[in-house]
User: Fold this.
Amino acid sequence: MDNKHPSTASEATFQGHVVAIRGSVVDVFFPEHLPEIHTLLHCPDLENIILEVASQLDASHVRAMALTPTQGLARQMVVTHNGTPLQAPVGHAILSRMFDVFGNPIDRKPPAENLQWRSVHQPSPPLSQRSTEPEVFETGIKVIDVLTPLERGGKTGLFGGAGVGKTVLLTEMIHNMVHQHEGVSLFCGIGERCREGEELYRDMQQAGVLDNMAMIFGQMNEPPGSRFRVGHAALTMAEYFRDDEHRDVLLLIDNIFRFIQAGSEISGLMGQMPSRLGYQPTLSTELSQLQERIANTETGAITSIQAVYVPADDFTDPAAVHTFSHLSASVVLSRKRASEGLYPAIDPLQSNSKMANPSIVGRHHDAIARQVRQTLAQYEEMKDIIAMLGLEQLSQKDRAIVSKARRLERFLTQPFFTTEQFSGMSGKLVNREQALEGCQQILAGEFDDCPEQALYMVGTIEEAREKWQTIQDKQQGGDDET
Assistant:
């Protein structure tokens, strides 16, 4: 580890020259001292160009991927290396700052001091060092805490197509958790819009939680090499807080699909034969190398929440399938629920969590969650009959199930802090006990006479009761007038 920026580290340098350029892929000839894979290459004539060795073609040629745009690079240009890989800044000084993949500040503030630098290529912790004690991680969002509880030190995926609210849900989780989360939060933007990063930075600054947070971005306008490596850089920062400072880390990644997509772009440019649906043949390995570093050890935990874009809402896409296998909880967002105005648009029947187990969450929680799922599943089966024949054709028992399911659906909606300016409703934070209490009362039939709108976009069940009372008072006032 070095306190100086790796690009200024004084080590022996070796020279080569460019022999071919194909977009973001550059072939370089080294007469001696062939660089190892992952070594950074610099161009003395163009200081803003940085390459990373991706493969060794023969005894004197390497193929490198560009981490920066390659404009101006030409054949026969001199390229140097000093044997160092890409390094990320670590240390207490990165908190409240925003970086790019090279560790340069992008928040218009002076460079951070007292930084240490570590290679972004680190092994995952061995099994002997991992903690196996499961622990629930509360989010303050009713539908998640009741039906798909998250794991401390686990990996959660927010799956959904374009525009169903993945980033909004991720931002809300940051807002809710940063206040109650005593550790460090790290936000990693992989190939997403820079506007979202800027808004998040401003929101966190206004909320006063930036002091315990760091951000790193590889934006969608940057080359695939930069987008591919930014996830590894973020994990290196997170591992420092977990292993050196023994603190819990909340790692938020938006979007893991863009990491896979960047790898696919690089694979195509490198000339590798694509596998199914055009993905890279090394998809499984690349994703595993990233995901296996996110782990819970005896000294601290990295809890990761990852947004996963699902192309064309197709959950059989290889990117979604490979990501599913690494997660302890999968939260699936549904376009159908979003169109009905049920936000967060989480599909309770497709979402699942390995923490939803009576030995972990307790028998009481498990019994209520099962009953909620069963009621919603029965309603889903009856929707076709209702659409064709109408609600009147159902038996009295089935009508009672539909009534409860519709009220549960509305109770599991929640106004968010991050959408206050758009919805005009103040955000609500609901703990797990309050959410379970509400579901239990609805299942017990205490709200069968309550109008559905009284349960829509409220926090606790007590708020719904107050709303119901207000509606009754208005109706009574209207009757008195008539």
